[in-house]
Structure formats: structure tokens, C-alpha cells
Amino acid sequence: MPAGTAPVTDTPSMASPLLALRRVPWMRIWLAAQWLYRHGRRRLEQNLSERERRDLLDLIKKSKGRQANLSTREQDRMRRLVRQALTGRGQR
């Protein structure tokens, strides 16, 4: 199985939104985060606190586009921050 992908089951479970986020290929998460910082500044400012924006930038830099450069906890944090920045929904 390619790195950054999760197995797909016949019956998708939405027990946790985080499980669904883990199914998104890592490169899409990273590219979305980069796009937000280059072109989506308004979304970042509206949907993330200053600390969350700083955390997201730190995670982008630390990962260098490679999922393995972040711990599982950091990967989950980056996924949540990208989702929150794009949709305005999340823990705040």
C-alpha cells in the first residue's frame, strides 16, 4: 500500500471525522496547507487563531512535504488545522 493512504473498507464508518481525514492522501493535505498560506490568507485569518496559524506554518515547514517527518499527533493536528481553515468548522 502506498505511503500516506489508509485501507478502504466496504462499509465506511463515520465514527470519527478524524478517521475520514486520515484517508485523504498526505500530499493533498500538505498542498492544501501550502495553498492556504500562499493564496488563502483571508480564510486563515477568519478561521484560525493566531496560534493555530503559527502551528500550521510550523508543521508545514517541519514536514517538508513528507508525512514521515511528523509524528502521528502532528499529522492529525495538521489535518485538523487544514480542515478548519478551509471549511471554518473545527475545534476552536
Features:
single chain, 92 residues, mainly alpha, globular
How does this structure look, described?
With 92 residues, this protein is mostly helical. It has one domain (17-87). The chain is 62% helix and 0% strand. It is built from five helices and no strands. Helix 2 (26-39) crosses helix 3, helix 2 (26-39) packs across helix 4 (50-63) and helix 4 crosses helix 5. The relative contact order is 0.18. The mean pLDDT is 79.
Percentage of residues assigned to helices: 55-70%
Indicate the proportion of strand residues: under 5%
Largest sheet, in brief, is: none
Structural class by sheet pairing and helices: mainly alpha
Number of discrete helical segments: 5
Order of helices and strands: HHHHH
Uncertain residue ranges: none
Report the principal-axis shape: globular
Map the helices and strands.
Layout: H1 17-22, H2 26-39, H3 41-47, H4 50-63, H5 72-87
Helix pairs in contact: 2-3, 2-4, 2-5, 3-5, 4-5
Quick recap of the structure?
The protein is an all-alpha fold and 92 residues long. The protein has one domain. It is 62% helix and 0% strand.
